[in-house]
């Protein structure tokens, strides 16, 4: 990986030197089927011609290409010696003219890691499927280019593929004499070019829009997936959300969708949720649901569809100059995904999911030692890869939500419209956006930007309440704190809600005031004189980005009456706050788990319920005192089974509790029930055990030694598909055997034979919370292996291994000290690798503090 890196300084120098007029890329993908071409990797021919200008004739630069071999390089009519100019990742270009033409004929490798041109063989029917994935810099694995976002250019692609295949790219394509030729694109960055090829199943539709001036926009729509998933593909719902999103963005952006067609392809073994390639958006195929799922799954898919659509303007039309300003596309897309979803689709409670789920990701990231401002310092491509994180996405989106409130909705949207028109097909930095927003709002934004975009860390807001003898509030103040490592106190526009119980027992809001919290302590004068509340909720309605704290009386109320809160957003905010207290070692893990089973059964929002289940498992695994884990595990399973049996038959709540019960099943009676449900000898009224649920029930049986390889393979025979193979691999690795763990470790760490999806599945099965003793020998092996893995494997696989195999379950001081020792001894290791290990160390230190808190609560 080090030789493939590109620094910000190199990119700046090259951007100052070059302007790119256009690319012509010809790919021959017929080698994707049939025999391989020798002992090396399977390759395809890639011929690229780049026309570009040089501001300093006579200067030298380089083009990017990662390929096993280069057949020919021609610069301005002169044939160059590939062995002399190509080092495996760069092509040296010397003595440039004012106007230049470079042609590179190369053999590029098909990928099994989800980077570059990924090749997938469907185990169900043997069909081969290809797709590309480039962000931030993997287009160079497919064709020679200048791989940085600010060297935009139009592209013409030609693709020769096996007969009968469907082939797609960013532009419209036509098939002539066995070759697909695609229309020239608008000027776009390398990382959002795309090619898709294979026997994909395709459904088509169209979108039509008539604007006020009478002009008509027609956008051809297509939705694609593997043939094996066609029977599950609900393309009509995908098209419904797509059309609703296009209407919303046309209504608000006043800039017609600029990229012609709008294809959406659901592809196998995808590393991301989705990618915003203009005209050809790619999604992970798990968004095609093979079994029963809850409304939260459909909401999540709708959000992703709209997130990627927002990128057509924020990211594709107008692109950040360098990855420092990644937020200019990702924060906006994350915000606009929820904004448009709530206002344009059936998922009107999307801000609840945002508050409870997305912000949880941001709060964790913002408390790691690797936290960074929303506008980050990105030194190179490895930094960029790791900055697709909770700060760039969810914190940035939260800050934008505040910005809309700060400058006003109309001013914000008018600023976006000016931004698109002013910078269409260009590249921008932070100041370009702030400039248009200052124009439209009349507000000075430099100070706001310094506080929210240019400093890291999350503030905590705590209410302080005093009342008189008659039970009236004499003063209600909000105290703001910050971590010593990031002491910035920020201006917050917050709503403070006062809640009390009614005669019916409901916990409802009876007073609310908005206030500008600035500095260490702010008095909310508007609530003076109100009756004493049972609950004070700071940041009611989720107006700002902060950690909510509670006064003692409010916390007591939540312990007993959280389930009585009638407002679903208020409940979600309280649950999130309680989880933050647990992670911060201010609430014992066993108390949080008790709250979940006292009140989660009344949670109406299915997405919140699913988060509570994830948090409860994490509380037990990482924050509960080791001496209490066994008892806690039994309590979790008992509570889950009780809720499963009382849930409405056939409801999504029943399905959610069934999945949670399977995940926490512990006792012999629990496992016996799972065996019965699989065999059909046990029944729970209304619960339909489809294939996906069968795998969910089988995995804990495998992990407890009650499903051997023959049982797992028999299940694969029932579901001999790509999805079934991933489940099988995870179940096999989950078995409680030293030999099994050794094999799984070797497959992931010592070999590169597994695809990205199977690496991920193997790691998920390997690291089971109930198998700490089996996993103990791998702590030392981990630290001995990671630097080699990082050097030898792709960055995506490196991230999977370094994150997934960190010995987090060996949560003791010895492991933490070993982690710190590795960091001390490897100060010159790749910064991105050190960042991952440093984050893991911080998580473990946090776990140990939580365990101490939990143990102390036992008396």
| Stretches with pLDDT under 50, minimum 5 residues | none
Q: Please tell me what the overall shape is.
A: globular
Structural class: alpha+beta
What is the tally of helical segments?
28
Distance between the termini: 51 Å
Q: What is the strand content?
A: 15-25%
Strand order of the largest sheet: 5-4-7-2-1-10-13-12
Question: Rg, please?
Answer: 28 Å
What's the average pLDDT? 96
Helix content: 40-55%
For the sheet with most strands, the description reads: 8 strands, mixed
Number of strands: 28
Assembly type of the chains comes to single chain
Could you characterize what this model shows?
- The protein is α+β, with helices and mostly antiparallel strands.
- Helix content is 43%, strand content 20%.
- It contains 28 helices and 28 strands.
- The strands form seven sheets. An eight-stranded mixed beta sheet has the order 5-4-7-2-1-10-13-12. Strands 15-16-17-19-18 form a five-stranded mixed beta sheet, with helices on one face. It has a four-stranded antiparallel beta sheet with strand order 8-9-14-11, with no helix packed on it.
- A hairpin with a 5-residue loop joins strand 15 and strand 16.
- The relative contact order is 0.07.
- The mean pLDDT is 96.
List the helices and strands and how they pair.
Layout: H1 8-17, E1 18-28, E2 43-54, E3 61-64, E4 69-75, E5 78-80, H2 82-85, E6 90-93, E7 99-109, E8 116-121, E9 128-133, E10 155-160, E11 166-169, E12 173-176, E13 179-182, E14 195-198, E15 201-210, E16 216-225, H3 235-253, E17 262-267, E18 274-275, E19 280-284, H4 295-311, E20 319-320, H5 327-344, H6 350-366, H7 381-386, H8 391-407, H9 409-423, E21 427-428, H10 430-441, H11 446-452, E22 460-467, E23 473-481, E24 492-501, E25 507-517, E26 521-523, E27 535-538, E28 547-548, H12 552-561, H13 568-583, H14 589-599, H15 606-623, H16 629-646, H17 652-664, H18 668-679, H19 691-703, H20 709-718, H21 722-734, H22 738-750, H23 756-766, H24 772-775, H25 778-792, H26 795-804, H27 813-825, H28 831-857
